[in-house]
Amino acid sequence: MTTPVCTSASAAAAPARQTYPSFASYVRARQPVLLRTARSLTANPSDAEDLLQTALAKTYVAWERIEDQRALDGYVRRALVNTRTSQWRKRRVDEFACDELPEPEPVPGGDDPAERQALHDAMWRAVLRLPARQRAMVVLRYYEDLSEAQTAEVLGVSVGTVKSAVSRALGKLREDPELTLVR
Known about the structure:
The chain has 183 residues and is mainly α. It has eight helices and no strands.
């Protein structure tokens, strides 16, 4: 049993309107008119298109329950208004007017992609200079983000061995001459 979602006051009072065999045919026929309505509710044409798509999605969900197809435009317009009202209520103000723009302090070498890549390359060269066992532990611990226990399990050693080897490896990296220039 279907319940009517939209009904008109009387069938005789409403002018004869076209009935639509499918939702797609309705959208093809009425989209320009409905888009104008959506544009009147928003300031941005892109937002109007998004608003119309949302309202049409809501209409599609209720398509089988709408018995009086003469009221389809009214149903979609109500969905447009309700959706826009919900968007307006949820809107947050993220910008505040102020006398001076709050600019972050520039970090030397922090935003330059070339410097980041140079640091990345220097770090990998330093890691490659480590002995194979220490290099494996550093890569598993810090690049693969494994715990000490997981690293020990992968390498077949004790957790204490991982701790001491990683400690020695980090000490060597701290003393690496190529990396001291970066600090």
